[in-house]
């Protein structure tokens, strides 16, 4: 028997009202995430992946943002219907988030220990000395040496990788059911990136936390996620098991993305050029008619220019693609 | 083999640390230590390493933005730090820089056309008509259209801004282009377009590139030879094929194994 999903997002749309009209940052997004799984969300800048994660945290500023439609259910609890007060109890406890830039997301004027124990005191109702000990435990867990000493450090005294470890310690301090990681390793060097991703995976396994991993790096997804969603201009264009996606990408955008990455395997040839996706991502306020990718698509059909395709299942379990070629 | 275009010989750069107002500090940051390399016309030398390894400091010295503590850089056999004013101006024309952040490196108050044409104005004041046709040619070469010349940097996307940066760098037909992480701030699909553009321009003008990146995939794609830097030193220097197929230094192996595989 399959357990019910930890997170179920159904037909979620988050728009922003601007002078140019409604900006459809997240448009009709649906997915389910099982306990202990990692869902990777991939897309280029401005595709709506960060707004999607902020929507799940209910951190989209309203106005100008607007939850136009849909439901976000965390273990059956409808997050969009909660009051701000109730939501504050969910954030940091049931759902936590780590951001791309650990320097700007830690408070520079407080010691890291105080920042971690604040979360613990707030959600677990323990006193200062208990939370202090738990903070030291968390720092030890994320691989920071001499945590008793480090706990008194300010963020600027730590390197980028260490700061990201502190962010992870804070995010996992209350054993959340869901952790949102928005480009957690983009600002880090590759060797540190590998360490941080390994750490997230270990802790995820130990605590049974589900993770949404947002990134533009398909390599990171290949090694760290079970499911993957490709986002383009506010919509999911492909959803798949990670293995299937890389062995058989279906959507022309997914194929284009995969081909345009320079690989370290294969031969070097000076005359080689990368296959490119022509053109640029459309502006969200001026989306084209029909499929949002049609004017860059190598396989464009007449219908693509007029009618938007739906996200359709492809026979495999959990495999969906939004493209007329497969309907 | 013919003589190299540029040679770097035992280059060192130290920055003083925590120097007080009256006290001189004894502690130093050894940004670049004992770096030697040579560069031949038309080749691409990739420099790879993690943040703080000294790759940007090295590039800035080659571009004559920063002076070394010791060592020399020779361009066509002449020490660039002993150039007189006129020679230096000529060198600046021959060695151009492309910056990492296309958002921070373009003057927001100038139009794209002015930014690209500025090198012409600085290096030869006459020929107003000439500039106009040159400008059009160069914009076309980097994939911009002439009617975009009146727009300001904020009206362009990241990829287009990097095209402006490249246009400005190639405007004076330089020999050497020093590109410091030119595609790191760009999305993958845009990155591919810019990398292809840089290769096309290299073919057309027989450009010599010093290409700095932390991304092994990008380095593999663009470089003929590669220098791996770690803590201010070059720890391995090899041809592209050799480095990726038979890495020698343990650090190179660590770097390669840390890259997530698709």
How many angstroms separate the termini of chain B? 39 Å
Helix content estimate of chain B: 25-40%
Strand order, main sheet of chain A: write it out: 6-7-8-3-9-10-12-11
Number of helical regions of chain A? 11
Second-tier CATH architecture of chain B: 3-Layer(aba) Sandwich
Give the topology string of chain A: H per helix, E per strand. EEEHEEHEHHHHHEHEHEEHHEE
Instruction: Provide a count of the helices of chain B.
Output: 9
Kindly state the percentage of residues in helix of chain A. 25-40%
Overall mean pLDDT of chain A: 89
Low-confidence stretches of chain B: none
Strand order of the largest sheet of chain B: 6-7-8-3-9-10
Q: What quaternary form is this? A: heterodimer
Question: Which homologous superfamily in CATH is the superfamily of chain B?
Answer: P-loop containing nucleotide triphosphate hydrolases
Can you count the beta strands of chain A?
12
């Amino acid at each position: 028997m399959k357990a019910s999903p930890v997170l179920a997002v159904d037909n979620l749309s988050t728009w922003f009202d601007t002078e140019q009209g409604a900006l459809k940052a997240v448009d009709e997004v649906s997915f389910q995430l099982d306990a202990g799984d990692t869902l990777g969300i991939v897309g280029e800048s401005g595709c709506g992946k960060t707004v999607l994660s902020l929507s799940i945290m209910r951190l989209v500023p309203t106005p100008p943002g607007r939850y136009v439609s849909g439901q976000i259910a965390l273990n059956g609890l409808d997050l969009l219907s909660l009051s701000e007060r109730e939501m504050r109890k969910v954030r940091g406890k049931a759902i936590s988030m780590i951001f791309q830039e650990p320097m700007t997301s830690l408070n520079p004027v407080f010691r890291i220990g105080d920042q971690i124990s604040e979360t613990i005191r707030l959600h677990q109702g323990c006193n200062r000395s208990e939370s202090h000990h738990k903070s030291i435990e968390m720092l030890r867990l994320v691989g920071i040496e001499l945590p008793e000493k480090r706990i008194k450090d300010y963020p600027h005294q730590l390197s980028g990788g260490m700061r990201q470890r502190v962010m992870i310690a804070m995010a996992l301090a209350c054993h959340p059911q869901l952790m949102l990681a928005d480009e957690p390793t983009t600002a880090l060097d590759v060797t540190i990136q590998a360490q941080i991703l390994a750490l997230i995976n270990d802790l995820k396994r130990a605590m049974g936390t589900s993770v949404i991993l947002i990134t533009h790096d398909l390599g990171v997804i290949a090694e760290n996620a079970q499911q993957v969603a490709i986002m383009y201009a506010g919509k999911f264009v492909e959803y798949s098991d990670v293995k299937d996606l890389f062995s058989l990408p279906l959507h022309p955008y997914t194929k284009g993305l995969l081909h345009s990455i320079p690989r370290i395997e294969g031969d070097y040839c000076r005359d080689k050029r990368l296959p490119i996706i022509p053109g640029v991502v459309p502006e969200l306020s001026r989306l084209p008619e029909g499929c949002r990718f049609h004017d860059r698509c190598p396989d464009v059909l007449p219908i693509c220019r007029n009618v938007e395709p739906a996200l359709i299942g492809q026979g495999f379990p959990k495999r969906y693609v939004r493209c007329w070629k497969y309907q | 083999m013919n003589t190299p275009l540029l040679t770097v010989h035992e280059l060192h750069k130290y920055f003083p640390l925590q120097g007080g107002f009256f006290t001189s500090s004894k502690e130093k940051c050894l940004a670049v230590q004992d770096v030697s390399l040579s560069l031949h016309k038309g080749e691409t030398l990739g420099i790879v390493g993690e943040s703080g390894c000294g790759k940007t400091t090295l590039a800035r010295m080659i571009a004559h933005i920063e002076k070394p503590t010791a060592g020399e850089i020779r361009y066509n056999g002449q020490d660039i730090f002993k150039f007189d004013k006129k020679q230096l101006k000529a060198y600046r024309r021959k060695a151009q820089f492309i910056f990492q952040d296309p958002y921070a490196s373009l003057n927001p108050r100038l139009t794209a056309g002015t930014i690209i044409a500025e090198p012409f104005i600085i290096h030869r004041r006459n020929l107003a008509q000439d500039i106009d046709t040159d400008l059009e040619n160069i914009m076309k070469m980097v994939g911009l259209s002439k009617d975009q010349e009146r727009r300001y940097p904020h009206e362009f996307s990241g990829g287009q801004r990097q095209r402006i940066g490249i246009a400005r760098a190639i405007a004076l037909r330089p020999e050497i282009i020093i590109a410091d992480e030119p595609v790191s701030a760009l999305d993958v699909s845009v990155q591919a377009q810019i990398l292809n553009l840089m290769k096309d321009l290299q073919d057309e003008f027989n450009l010599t590139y010093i290409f700095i990146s932390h991304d092994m995939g990008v380095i593999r794609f663009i470089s003929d030879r590669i220098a791996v830097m770690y803590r201010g030193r070059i720890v391995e220097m090899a041809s592209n094929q050799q480095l990726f197929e038979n890495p020698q230094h343990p650090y190179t192996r660590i770097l390669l194994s840390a890259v997530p595989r698709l």
